[in-house]
Task: inverse folding
């Protein structure tokens, strides 16, 4: 599960370099998110622009990642393609996360 | 007698890794053919949920689980059949698939339970049978015009 992160001021950007977040990698994703966000001091943006597909297990892992960050750090999302966005809308998780069209928009918000 | 080949015929073992491989195979096949307009994204979402449910429930704890997926695209509609050699559905019923509540405190947010709700929202004519050979048979349709 290839995740990288970088900081921009107090913001932490985590980028997912995988085509799929699905049931076969959901646990690794959650564990890698914990490692990458350990040093977060403020808002975290999860950039999904390289992700083609998520299933409900992948969605659950993103929700779990937000929970493990705790209430002190917001988790925003950016770069959802049409299919990924559809999964968030169907489950109404689009009402839980702030979703930005691109990372640039997320950084400016 | 000429028998028409189904547009999709994939057999897989009942593991999450095989489900991923099957969906990747399906995606490659759909982009190779002039089926681009046929709701490939929605098809992948629904099949992922159906196949994951089989692996996680019908085939839970099994190492000899098998799944056979067939489908064809006709008159702007996918017709899918998923068979597996796992345990029958509870009470021989397709789960109700109620939407998990998302208007909650952060720590109470649901991390699962979305699968059947997604399938029921996106697919239609969903039917389940326990066949005489002891396999589960789930059939459903995905018309292009369903949002």
Result:
């Amino acid at each position: 599960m290839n995740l990288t992160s970088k900081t921009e001021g107090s913001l932490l950007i985590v980028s997912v370099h995988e085509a799929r977040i699905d049931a076969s990698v959901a646990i690794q994703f959650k564990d890698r998110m914990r490692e990458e966000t350990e040093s977060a001091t403020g808002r975290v943006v999860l950039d999904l622009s390289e992700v083609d597909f998520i299933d409900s297990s992948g969605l659950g892992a993103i929700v779990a990642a937000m929970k493990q960050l705790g209430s002190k750090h917001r988790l925003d999302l950016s770069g959802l393609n049409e299919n990924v966005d559809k999964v968030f809308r169907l489950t109404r998780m689009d009402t839980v996360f702030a979703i930005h069209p691109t990372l640039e928009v997320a950084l400016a918000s | 007698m000429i028998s028409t080949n189904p547009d999709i015929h994939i057999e897989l073992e009942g593991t999450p890794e095989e489900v991923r491989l099957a969906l990747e195979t399906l995606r490659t096949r759909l982009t190779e053919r002039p089926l681009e307009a046929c709701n490939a994204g929605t098809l992948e979402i629904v099949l992922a949920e159906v196949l994951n449910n089989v692996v996680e429930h019908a085939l839970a704890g099994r190492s000899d689980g098998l799944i056979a997926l067939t489908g064809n695209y006709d008159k702007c509609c996918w017709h899918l059949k998923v068979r597996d050699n796992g345990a029958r559905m509870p009470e021989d019923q397709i789960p109700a698939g109620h939407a998990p509540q998302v208007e909650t405190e952060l720590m109470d947010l649901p991390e699962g339970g979305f699968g059947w709700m997604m399938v029921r929202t996106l697919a239609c004519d969903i039917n389940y049978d326990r066949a005489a050979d002891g396999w589960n048979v789930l059939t459903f349709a995905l018309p292009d015009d369903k949002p």
